[in-house]
Amino acid sequence: MDATRTIVETVGKLRQRRTAPLVLELDLTEGLSEGPPADPVTALLSMRKARLTEVLSGLRRARKDPRVTALIVKIGGNPLGLGMVQELRTAVVKLRAAGKHTVAFAETFGEFGAGTVPYYLASAFERVYLQPSGDVGLTGVALEQRFLRDALAKAGVEYQLGQRHEYKTAANTFTQNHMTDAHRESTGRIAESVTEQIVAGIAEGRGLDPKRVRELIDQGPFIGSEAVEAGLVDELKYRDEVYAETVDEGAHLLYVSRYAKSALSGRLPHPGAATVALVHGTGMIRLGRSGRSPLGGGGAMGSDTICAALRSARRDEKVKAIVFRVDSPGGSYVASDAIWREVVLARQAGKPVIVSMGDLAASGGYFVSMAADVIVAQPGTLTGSIGVFGGKPVVGELLGKLGVVTESVTEGANAGMFSPSTAFSDEQWQRVNAWLDRIYDDFVGKVAQGRGLSKERAHELARGRVWTGADARTAGLADELGGLEDALALARRRAGLPGDAPVRTYPRMHPLERLRPPESSEDRSAALARVRLEAWGPLARMAGQLGLPAYGPLVLPGWWTIR
């Protein structure tokens, strides 16, 4: 009898849970992951992070679910990119419009530090709570660039770098000791555009006049009581007080990602159903497989992996359209070109390709995007940077100061051309510039072809200049402003699919399965079979931050992070 009673009670509790009001939670303390893990190491390191696609899917479902009464989001100190923040803000605004209660809670928006972007996210919610000991670091937008030329010269290092053209400023880190006029112009416009977006969002969300928001930015940062007085925060409360006020008795708490997964598990698509393929391309672009360093070198978009995913989606008869999610500052020209080719082939096969840009889709990130049918970007996405740079450091003098003697034996006039021990000869420098011209001409030509522009107009928009998504749309480098959900909806419409047509993520494979050897070069998982784990990860990360050509000639400058 006791066993029977236990079973009955358990079933009763499960039924009660299914019918009880739901309060969804989202904890952003660890940030969000952009897409599925590309390798076992990334899978392990991202276990504690919710995935953006799951969060967006869950919030979309919650809008029509009568059980969902509220959303509580803890905004932590782990910064999110501006594009991702705008994705979340849009989802929250739509949830509010559906009549759901939305609450943002933070222990602090920047603890003695900048908190403009986290607070910008919070301003989309109906109620904003701050821990009594917290602050609101609403201080505006700052983009810094460090110049190493003079410091390197003191050490005996000279950089020989060429760039195409004046706005391709990654090389300036090593070749200048100040911002050039073009550099300052483009950076100033980015800061201005981002500030316009943040001011407009905070003003709308908090019911303030935009001029007043500008004034508050100049007055920040604020301690908690000042933030309440200024109308930036509703109340100062601890977490338990926020939950006590928001969660009614009998309501069930559930993380948004779990809520999204529970919905998917109950309605798996029919095996033969028409679908939209979602291909994620994240990180620096390089030849070979996607992966990362176990020592923290960061993720990379491998051309073999992404090309295989696009190829697999193109050949899958059930796939009627492709959404290519790009979040990359660029990298290898050759790898970018290989991915570009697969986008072209997908379109030639009659499958619409919609690019959804994340925080970044610049330089090589724009290269892989420009052949798509439609480019969708967030207003705060950084894109463009259509240009190239390349060269090398010359460290012979430094080595001499350290007592290092370098000798070499070569066969061929230019065999030692890329040695950092000696400078380029005049003839070798001509070859470097011919290489830069070829890449730039190819890049601009493909921009013109993909975007329906004259080559002259494409060059005018190029020259290495970085644009926000809002300005890129005005210039014709992007088509629509929006996020991943908008891109998926557009792909369904282009393919003539219903609004709830399923989405399949490519590559469709667990990271551990990629360790097995492929059967052939046409095995659709062949490019995913071997994981690349570089032992030099920290050095690679440092090189990327400094804009070194180790990642390839199509790279965005290293100041792009907006906090």
UniProtKB/TrEMBL annotation:
Q: Where in the numbering of this chain does the Peptidase S49 domain appear? A: 98-246, 347-496
Q: Which Pfam family, any one of them, does this sequence belong to?
A: Peptidase_S49
Q: Which UniProt keywords apply?
A: Hydrolase, Membrane, Protease, Serine protease
Q: Which InterPro entries match?
A: ClpP/crotonase-like_dom_sf, Pept_S49_pIV, Pept_S49_SppA, Peptidase_S49, S49_SppA_67K_type_N, S49_SppA_C
Location in the cell: Membrane
| CDD domains according to UniProt | S49_SppA_67K_type, S49_Sppa_N_C
Q: Keyword Hydrolase: yes or no?
A: yes
In the UniProt record, does the keyword Nucleotidyltransferase occur? no
Family label: Belongs to the peptidase S49 family.
Q: What is this protein called?
A: Signal peptide peptidase SppA
Organism of origin is: Microbispora hainanensis
